[in-house]
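Hello again, I could really use a second opinion on something today. My current little project is about how a certain protein chain folds up. You're getting the sequence in one-letter code plus the fold written as tokens. Here's the protein in full, and shout if anything looks odd to you:
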Amino acid sequence: MNHLATSKEDILTASRDLIRENGWAAVSIRAVAARCSVSAGTIYNYYNSKADLLGDTIESVWYEIFFHPKDEQVFHDVETCISWIYERLEYGDAQFPGFFSLHSLGFMRNEKSDGKKKMMQTWEHILHGLCEVLKNDPKIRPDVFDQQFTEDKFADILFSLILMSMLRQDYDPSDVLMLIKKTLY
């Protein structure tokens, strides 16, 4: 059901809905305007170009998938955090089929600056969260990390495995959790 867009959030909701239904190719100024029951000019009141619209849409998709303050307790131990990340990946893939592989690879390869920047901001947020969890998890052996094998380096390893899972669409964290158990506890 179409509705009248009265805000950027309405436009972004319509854009996400188009992606859910028909993939990234469905998002255009005209398609979003039609979904919102407004003229294309109304969308241009909010966005200067399709690239600007796509950049904000990408950011809103990443936000929907990964930014959940109510899930704050997942950042108290590494195993729970990794399980939550994989659950969110699975959710993201179900809600936005092909988002991770098409969007991530496309922006990395084509250097589309705004979309790539927003994707990288989300990745940095996840990586920072992993580092914090590694530094604060009380279950981790106190002698695990040193100057050569730091929390940051292990977070990079974990994040690389997460990225591979995204690209493969493999949302089973059991191998990563086994690595964590054998390495940290």
